[in-house]
Amino acid sequence: MALPVLRASKFAAFWLVLLLAVSAWAQPRPASGVMVAAPLTAPPVSGLSCGQATTRCVPSEHATIDACWEAMSAGDTCLVSAGTYAELPASTRNGSSGNTLTFKGTGTVNVCGWDFSGNSYIRLIGFTFNNITAGCATRDGTVRLLGVNTKIEIWNNTFGRGVRAIGQNSLADRCNGCVIVGNFFTNVNVPDAGFGTGGGVGFAFNDAFIAYNDFGPIDADAINVTGVQNRFVGNYLHDVSQISGHSDFWQTDTSDDGTQFILAEANFDRGVGNLSDEHVGVIQNLTSGRCPGTGGVCGAVTDNTWRRNVFYNMSGGLGVSYGPIATMLNTRYYSNTEIDTMLYPVANTTAYSTNFFNGVDWVFLRNNVSYAAWGTGISANIEVFHSEAANNDRDYNLAYDPDGSVTFASVWTNQAHEQSNVNPNFVNKAGLDFHLAAGSGDGANARGTGGPLTTATSCSGTTLNVASRGGGFFRGDNTTLDQYSGGLVKGDTITVGSSTREIASISGDVITLTASVTCSNGDAVYLGDDTTPDLGAFPYKVGGYTLSATYVNSGGTVTTTPNDVNLVRFVVCYSDGVPYAVDHTSPYTCASPGGTLNVRVYPMYASQTLWAVATP
């Protein structure tokens, strides 16, 4: 196949990756009760093939991807056959709501990169992006999101041997309501340094859903994202390198929009453990020079949440620090599991791995498990969590050192419900199975010893008022992420007193539920349906955490049945490799497709396995 001419790169630089915590203060979707079934999404009426009115093909019909794009109308699909395409597709043509432009690679399709610039409603699926492929010039940035882009989706691609993967050229660029799911970022900027630091995804996003991606090996940062109401869910981050001299799994600063209401949930971070500058993450509010669009007046860094994450074998720790331009407020860190951190240098004497330094206030630390999450060279006055904030809320946390009893500082022992030198009883730590074992039952070790996150002050109909700063522990739906009938996200399930409800939206400390509730002032409020929660990222489950599923395709409906619905975040139905329906509520259903059916089931909890494939 004749290769198209490579378009010259028009931009330099490209930033990248981190984050931390929390997203979703949105409007309610019409519903009632706790569980709300997503509607069936209309599937493709037939399989994808060349010659259809809405399907265009490369190279049989169009010599280049660029030419295919220029010939497309909203709702069309461009099928790209296996081969190497030394081009950087770019166009002003866009899709529309419900009628995206879809680009689908069939077989192994190598592409230099992609240039979005003010585009909207476009999907990239099944490509291998590798700007070191023969005929591709190495550039700083593989898939670029320049200008203000809306509802761009990047599903199930592979990013290899290049300098950077997905993101923007400047802090003025944006991607709003964008979806990045199921991609593999492998050897990005490793060992091809030369453009400065590389990385995975960055920089400015709002209402984004970045989930179930595999990052590693990678240099330097995996996720470096700023913005508002972004969600980072179920990613597996591992094997960072230090060609650039500095590596973080997550890193962010402020921007014009700030870094606000971010949710980092159920991510599994596995470090290398012997690098001089490897961190779980860094969150900061460092310089007004990052806010050019607002004349140096930056958005707030506030109300970010990390929950149900696993951090293992880390050379360093997590830092929320350095806020000279404005105080970073309301950081919530709960139900996480930290194992073997602060490993560099050998015999490190740091008394903690999670820290909140200067420029931080209102820190909330609850229901976490810390297993040797401090330097190996210290055994006295362990802080576990270090905070310089004036206001700290710490309780129901557990700390354990397998090398023998250690003593703890007063900032730890002053918790009303701390557990010191208590083995959390993992199933198989050596095998990286950090799920809780049966142990001696609820109320012992990490089982059944967690506490509430906040308390109710009053209820009226579907309105729940909680204590000051309590609303930020939770997330409602995000109606901006309305792709696939809103199936990618939904509001948290919470328990108020003895009543379990689903959250529709949140405004400050006022929570709107999907069904009415009664409560009394002071009633405890929990995430989920358990009023005696287990500690850490993994509640005890009798059947374990191995996820599997089957499906039945009958009568025009596909019904997927997992081995345990409590292990599932959502189910995605694909037709000829293109996602067309997402359901987050059991029973999981989608309409039967016209093409080849594939069903993937995505886990609720942190895992090194990104999804399970349902079998018929």
Map the helices and strands.
Blueprint (H helix, E strand, L loop, with lengths): L54 E4 L6 H7 L5 E4 L2 E3 L15 E5 L3 E3 L2 E4 L2 E6 L2 E2 L13 E4 L1 E8 L2 E2 L4 E4 L6 E3 L2 E3 L2 E2 L13 E3 L3 E2 L2 E3 L2 E2 L5 E3 L3 E2 L2 E3 L2 E3 L8 E6 L6 E2 L2 E3 L2 E3 L7 E6 L17 E2 L2 E3 L2 E3 L5 E3 L7 E7 L2 E5 L10 E5 L3 E7 L2 E5 L10 E4 L4 E4 L2 E3 L9 H4 L5 E2 L5 E3 L4 E4 L17 E7 L2 E4 L16 H4 L6 E4 L2 E9 L2 E4 L10 E4 L21 E6 L2 E6 L5 E8 L2 E6 L4 E4 L5 E7 L8 E2 L3
Structure description:
With 616 residues, this protein is mainly beta. The chain contains 3 helices and 56 strands. The protein has a 15-stranded parallel β-sheet that branches. It has a 13-stranded parallel β-sheet with strand order 3-5-8-11-15-19-23-27-31-34-37-40-41, with no helix packed on it. The longest helix has 7 residues.
Mean pLDDT: 89
Helix content: under 10%
Morphology: globular
Radius of gyration: 24 Å
Q: Main beta sheet: strand number and arrangement?
A: 15 strands, parallel
Distance between the termini: 38 Å
**What is the percentage of strand-forming residues?**
35-45%
Low-confidence stretches: 1-40
Secondary structure category: mainly beta
Using DSSP, what is the number of strands? 56
- Count of helical segments? 3
Give structural attributes.
single chain, 616 residues, mainly beta, 15-stranded parallel sheet, 13-stranded parallel sheet, 3 helices, 37% strand, globular, disordered N terminus
